Amino acid sequence: MSCNYADNLSPYDDKGVLGTPEIFDTPSEITSKVEQLVDLILASKHIVVHTGAGISTACGIPDFRGPNGVWTLEKKGIKPKVDISFKDAIPSKTHRALKHLVDKGYVKFIISQNIDGLHMRCGTPRANLAELHGNMFTAECPKCKKQFVRTSPAPTVGKKAVGETCRNKGRPCRGQLIDTILDWEDDLPDDDLDMAMMHSTIADLNIGLGSSFQIMPCAKFPMRSQKFGGKFVLINLQATKVEKKADLSIHAYVDDVMDMVMKRLGIEDIPEYSEADDPTRKEDFSVNWNIPKKELTSIEKLYKERNKKRKGDEVEVKKKYKKTKAEDGN
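-> structure tokens emitted (330 positions)
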């Protein structure tokens, strides 16, 4: 299937702000801001990265709301020219850098709005990844809810039958598999949504990469931790509504920024894409792609503990404030 999967979505009028001009920071500004970002990374214990279509444009996959994005051109009556298929697209430098940062323990979780499967294809573990809008290389059984990795892109979008029967070896149910790609009005997947919400909230640093953050609820996730002291860094070529809420904003190509970040972290060489790490290159169609239940249980426990502590801290602050007011006679 062509990377312009949008042709198969249902008609939808409100596609957000389109075609905003790109902004480029000067080289000296980028250097200074990257140094600030690296300082934040080194000072953080729970980093969550939010990725949008802008991290895949280097792979030949068009974005949606950029100057030459799919929706932008559509509004002008122009059909985008796409010369690459999902199967032929290769993970970008940013995809590979993020996977490496997960492996090294810098990044705890990645929240993706992309359906191209490139995070998965460069070897990012499912335990560290939420795919809020689905994955072109997975299919799900409506009966047992098991997700399986496909060796080729799903032929459909919008949770339709892909022509395969459930391959659950432990409990065969013969359910008819459907694609996992959301159409406009489809609900977000529960487990991915829960993981995204909890990780975003307890993060001490949320980083947005290549996203205009116009789709809800994704647009609010990076700011969830700010009232608890968390920081939000945005890296995007276009100005967005959430930019005024960011503690740091960098206008530059995400690949360039990630390359600089990695070097400043002492990682000179970002690992290349390897087919050995790509589950879509394996012929066993029964490869499971569900978020491990133990990960859901673990993050839920941590989320409750952090919230309990924060509520306790808030109560203490209010008590001290009331005591101070009473002593001042106000």
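The first helix runs from residue 27 to 43.
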